[in-house]
Amino acid sequence: MTARRAAEDRRRRPAPRRSVPLPRGAAIAIGAVVVLLLLIVLVARGCGDDALSAGELRSQAGAICARANAITDRVAVPNAPSGGQRFLREGLAELRPAHMRLAALKPPDELRADYERAVALNLQQLALIGRTSRAIAGGADTIDAFAALQRRLAPVLAQENAAWRALDVPACMRQ
Questions:
Q1: Closest alpha carbon to 120 in 90, 89, 164
Q2: Does residue 102 form part of some domain?
Q3: How many CA atoms lie within 13 A of 61 on its CB side?
Q4: Residue 157 is part of which domain span?
C-alpha cells in the first residue's frame, strides 16, 4: 500500500522545475527590450500629451458653459432683498463646478495663454460673487451689496467676455 501511495503522490505532484539561469547580459537585454516596448506603446498612445485640439476645446468649453448657464438661469431671481444671499449661493453652487470643469480642460499650445486668462477671469468673477454672498450673510445691506458687486463685476466680465470671444467660445460669454 505504501508503494502504491508513493506512486500516486508522484503522479499528482508536478515534476520539479529546472530553471536554466540566464547569463547576466541576456537578462539585461530582455529587460531593455521590455522597457523599449513599453516606451513605444506609451509614445504611440500619446501619453503625456493630453491637450485638446482647438475644436475640441471650443466644443467642450462651450458645452460646459451652456449647461451651467441653463442651470443658473433656473435659479429664482429674488423678488425681495431677503432672497439675495440665497440667489448668489445657489448660483455659485452651479458655477463653481463648471469652473472646475473648465479649468480641467487642456488647451492646445496656441490657445493656452488666452484660455488660461479666460479661466482666471472666471475665477475672479466667482470670488467677487462669493465675497458678496458672505457679506450679505454677515449682515450687509443686500441692495448696496448687489450694486457694489455689479460695479466690481463689470470690468471683469468685459475682460472675460473678450477672452471667450477671442477663443471663439460664445457660450461662455455673460451679460
A1: 164
A2: yes
A3: 30
A4: 54-172
Q: What is the DSSP string of 113-138?
A: HHHHHHHHHHHHHHHHHHHHHHHHHT
Q: Are 133 and 80 in contact (CB under 8 A)?
A: no
Write down the pTM of the prediction.
Answer: 0.70
Asked if the structure places residue 28 within a domain, the reply is no
Amino acid identity for residue 164 in this structure: W
Decide if 8 is inside a domain. Answer: no
Which of the residues in the chain have pLDDT under 50?
A: 43-45
**pLDDT tens, 4-13?**
666 566 566 6
In a domain, 126, yes or no: yes
User: To which residue does cell 448657464 refer?
Assistant: 69
| Residue 103 in grid coordinates | 479649468
CB 86 within 8 A of CB 132: no
Tally of domains in the chain:
1
The CB density around residue 164, as the number of other CB atoms within 10 Å, is: 25
